[in-house]
Amino acid sequence: MSWVESANSPDTDFPLQNLPYGVFSNNEETRIGVAIGDQVLDLRACAHYGLLSELPPDAIEACTQESLNDLMAQGSETWSVLRRQLTALLAESADSAVKSRVQPFLVPMRDAQMQLPAHIGDYTDFYASIHHATRVGKLFRPDNPLLPNYKYVPIGYHGRASSIVVSGTAVRRPCGQIKTPTETEPTFGPSRSLDYELEVGIFIGRGNPLGEPIAIDRAEQHIFGLCLVNDWSARDIQSWEYQPLGPFLAKNFATTISPWIVPMGALAPCRVPAAARAEGDPAPLTYLTPSNAARSGIDVTLEVSLQSEKMRQANITPVQLSQGNLRELYWSLDQLLTHHASSGCNLRPGDLLATGTISGPEEGSEGCLLEMKHRAATLKLPNGETRTFLEDGDQVIFRGYCQTPGLPRIGFGECTGKIISSSSTSV
Questions:
Q1: For the segment 187-206, what is each residue's pLDDT rounded down to a tens digit?
Q2: 65 near 71, Cβ under 8 Å?
Q3: Contact 412, 227 (CB under 8 A)
Q4: Which region, left, alpha or beta, applies to residue 154 given φ > 0 means left and ψ of -120 to 50 means alpha?
Q5: SS3 category, 77
Q6: Where in the sequence numbering do the catalytic residues fall?
Q7: Cis amide bond preceding 244, omega within 30
Q8: 286-302: string of b/e by CB count within 10 Å (b at 16+)?
């Protein structure tokens, strides 16, 4: 329990057991904050007024910066010390003197403008859900949905870091070359098949030197925390350009992330075994085989909702489109990170890896609109509107949370984005 009353609500995403990190602006200043209930604790103020004294000087200095990169670079031991100290400051058991010192450094969340949490130097997107890969593959290759390498190697591509935006930023419909099956030549214009992709992001903490791989049993020591990711995709642009080199303009126009990074320490009670491989599937190669597969998965419920412009005007609440779970991944987070560095690639603090679209085996767990076409050609909204892909004015909302019996919910907050016209000049 916390002396910040809103942190004890059963509906909050941010109880004392969570304490996710973000970057916010308030009174024209940008600084690192920690979410607690409906408040944000200002870490710069805590550092300046001696409330983080258990940390080494360079870590205290990292807490005063305008991005999380320096704190990410400190490593897991420092992150654990900071987490313990923050918990002590905010716990109900804190003495009255501590509470009176900390209270002035709480900012109401409604007054905090969230920013990107880190300077993201590089962004890599994977394809780690076999349920998503199989469903999408069947749409294009009914007799051979999965290519032969899928069960041996975590598939991924390097994305565009410059177009990553924080939740709440409008997403402009992209233009590109499009060629339909009935046309002989492509045309250039706005995408007519804009889609979302439900993903989880992995923020790298301490990196690795160029040329030195990361052993799988040390991979999580390099993970600062997780966030939600919407890797927007223009399917019609993608279908024309992706061969032979893969995603390009269909993906680089925008990727939305949630503002709060949930630390791995908060997710400890949510650990589960890695998803079981089907009988007959090959075992992972040795470098991708963790010694503790019983805790390689994480039980995070993931939800997608949509609200159209007409729904907003009629005060109709967003409708839930699907619900999946991070534990369903074919390739676990430590496998993704280890494979990425196995070539000697140097990961750096603030780099972002994403899982790729997360889907489950059952209907209703699809992580994108394209994938839903296996059960219905169009999606019907509560007001009678239909969708095959996103239209201008549609707002997509992702939510994620862990709910371990007997423990508070560990939430990720929201990851939202609204589609605006390719020719619009307003947000």
A1: 999 999 999 999 999 999 99
A2: yes
A3: yes
A4: beta
A5: helix
A6: 132
A7: yes
A8: eebebeebeebbbbbbb
